[in-house]
Specification:
Mean pLDDT: 88
Strand content: under 5%
Radius of gyration: 18 Å
Helix content: over 70%
Order of helices and strands: HHHHHHHHH
Number of helices: 9
Distance between the termini: 47 Å
């Protein structure tokens, strides 16, 4: 009820603060923050296009169809914002449908091209399509990406990323 008293201009500032707050909170708390964020956006939105904060909140609130539309709009307005495109790719990768997995693989390839080789984001962008192809059932293509990355860059971006590459390799090999 108190949210209805928030002025539209104030709502945008509060949404930005909630978005930053959610980023640093445990996953169990984020849906509650997302609910407040979405309510504020409903109050102050009008005909404004969706924001990254809205796309994140819809994702966290478990509303994937609406989140996809918001992410499409947000990412479409900022094609050179690699951070934003990476968030969009992560969203697509988290979905379980074939269209999202296909779109994720394509988005990760764009991010790879936009990232300096051997940077953490570049390794993440190499790993993303491997996961997507595995999800699509194309184990051979997923394995090819992993093997090529390993052959050219045995360190695979350090211990944390190497462990992620190994996890995907294990899934490919075991079929899990």
């Amino acid at each position: 009820a108190e949210l209805t008293a928030v002025a539209p201009g104030d709502a945008a500032a509060i949404v930005a603060r909630l978005d930053r707050l959610a980023e640093h909170r445990p996953a169990a708390v984020r849906p509650a923050i997302a609910g407040v964020t979405l309510r504020l956006l409903e109050l102050g939105r009008g005909s404004a296009p969706p924001t990254a904060a809205e796309a994140r909140a819809l994702t966290t609130a478990g509303r994937p169809a609406e989140a996809r539309k918001a992410w499409d709009a947000v990412a479409g307005r900022a094609p050179r914002d690699v951070d934003l495109q990476t968030e969009f790719a992560e969203f697509l990768s988290s979905q379980t449908d074939r269209a999202s997995a296909t779109a994720a693989a394509a988005k990760w390839r764009e991010i790879e091209r936009a990232s300096p080789e051997s940077s953490p984001r570049w390794y993440q962008a190499r790993l993303g399509p491997a996961r997507s192809y595995w999800q699509l059932g194309d184990k051979a293509h997923a394995a090819q990406i992993i093997e090529l990355t390993e052959a050219l860059h045995p360190e695979r971006g350090g211990a944390a990323l190497k462990a992620q590459f190994d996890e995907v390799r294990g899934r490919i090999e075991t079929g899990r």
